[in-house]
Amino acid sequence: MHNIWAKLPYKSYAVSGHDTTSFLQGQLTQDVNQISENHCQYGAFCSHKGRMFGVFLLNKLNDTFYLRIIESSEQPVVNRLKMFVLRAKVTFEALSDTHIGCDKAMAAAFCEAQGITLPTADFEAITQDGLSICALPKHFYEIRLSADSPLAHWFDQTHPDQENTPAVNALRLAGGHFNIQPDGIEKWLPQQTPLDNWGSINYQKGCYVGQEIIARNKYLGQVKKGFAVATIDAPLTLAVNATIQHEGRDIGQIIETQIIGAQTICLGLMPFDRMQTTLTIEGQPAVFHRIQDDV
Q: In the chain, how many domains are there?
């Protein structure tokens, strides 16, 4: 499918103040000094044990950072992040923005209509007042529109027939763009996700929450499982944490799924050495591929 879009259940915060850069640098896995009007990036917020509370998509305009997170986990994750502000001069402002997910063709149509050059490189961004466009890996795009922007209803008004939430979620999952729902908080290591391959974990910037464990996992090779994607040729309604099996033995779990037509896109966690082999989910064969693999 092409020319598809959907509203995403995300929440954004504008984070500003004299100490914002140093504060975020000490909390998130990414190097926030690399974030700019033209460059976005994911960043994980972790526990001291190196497990993720949540994952943000960050972009920046002037001295303000914009942090996007899945709405269902917004309160516990953002409230915990705020606990570490202490006396730092940092302010969090909750926004009522609209978040759009779409494919490259729809993003190109939006940019052409606004006279904007489409960002195409991974994590290339355009950030303006009331607007951000982020080009993410595997040709997935996110567009944030402020509630008071004249463009807030552009997609509804100009392309109502192309709104397709299942197709957009399938595209998102196929690209590895995961969310951490409340029942996934503190379950996964950032290196088990695509974040490391995407440059969302920095090992040179110095201390941040969980940094010691995260670095140890990296350099001692202690991460044996990772996220992977499979397309199953059957429409399966699968629960989160449903088991993935190999020869009758449980070896992994489902993270998120999306039925699209007669197929199911599955994001799962499993041993690296079982990827690219035939596994089963509720009796259906499934071959999982690492996120960075082109399949």
A: 2
Torsion (CA) 189, 195, 196, 202 in degrees, nearest 10: -90
**Which pLDDT does position 295 carry in this prediction?**
40
Range of the domain at 15: 5-174
280 pLDDT band (50/70/90 cuts)? very high
Average pLDDT over residues 150-163: 96
In this structure, are 167 and 242 located in the same domain?
A: no
Nearest residue to 67 via CA among 122, 141, 139, 142: 142
Asked if 176 and 138 count as a contact pair (C-beta separation under 8 A), the reply is: yes
93 is in an annotated binding site: no
pTM: 0.95
Residue 144 shares a structural domain with residue 258: no
Which residues, other chains included, contact 240 with Cβ-Cβ below 8 Å and sequence gap of 6+? 181, 183, 184, 254, 255, 256
Task: Tell me: pLDDT of 294 over 70.
Answer: no
Q: Is residue 214 part of a domain?
A: no
